[in-house]
Amino acid sequence: MGRSPCCEKAHTNKGAWTKEEDDRLVAHIRYHGEGCWRSLPKAAGLLRCGKSCRLRWINYLRPDLKRGNFTQEEDDLIIKLHSLLGNKWSLIAGRLPGRTDNEIKNYWNTHIRRKLVSQGIDPTSHRPITEPSAATSSQREANPSKIDKFIKEQVREKCPDLNLDLRISPPYQNQESFKTGTNGTFCFDCSTGIQNSKDCSCKYGNITNSGYDSLGLKSGVLDYRRLEMK
DNA sequence: AAAGCCGGCAACCGCCCATCC
DNA sequence: TGGATGGGCGGTTGCCGGCTT
Asked: Where does this protein have compositionally biased stretches of type Polar residues (predicted)?
């Protein structure tokens, strides 16, 4: 049914890459560039699926990769981006130079998820686990709350080209105060880091150096519109 | 020392989307 | 316009090494 396989499975190697295979792949790409992944294995003399070559190159062999532990800043940024984008690992990786989507995905599943749970935070909704409104994502999708609808409306208005099917969950706030910025809470703009926005409707908008710009929205490092939609 | 368990991570799978013809 | 193709992505699997019993 459907499409043909991406390669001839019967004559391809699987599993861990050997040093020799790595060398062949790197040498080929250095000389010819990335080009067509499907034809690359044959051209490079590799008994590998083209997709496997692409993955190996992108995740481990690319010269611009940053290896080693994630920093606290990277941790924070991943959490913030995940609360905004959900499991869009490639988009998240696009904001972390030298990190790959696969690396971030693994790191999330093995470290950050556990860390959030231990802090009493639902890693999917980014809301306190004990909160009655901290429903599961499927519950929220089936029966979106007022705040979910409000957030989608705001994002649609501010970023019409952003995929609204993403799961977007800013830090939990009382719904009405969240919306209006009253009672000492953040308005939508400030809660997502867009402080000093012309649309800011709360008293925090003019506070400078508040440290709540981990996404880089205020500084312009991150802009919804500039998220790389590869 | 050996067996079992568990966590981390590299790699694969299958689907989706954009592009080409 | 619609099918074929290739690239890209998220989810999942399975291996391996370290730890515990």
From this structure: 133-142
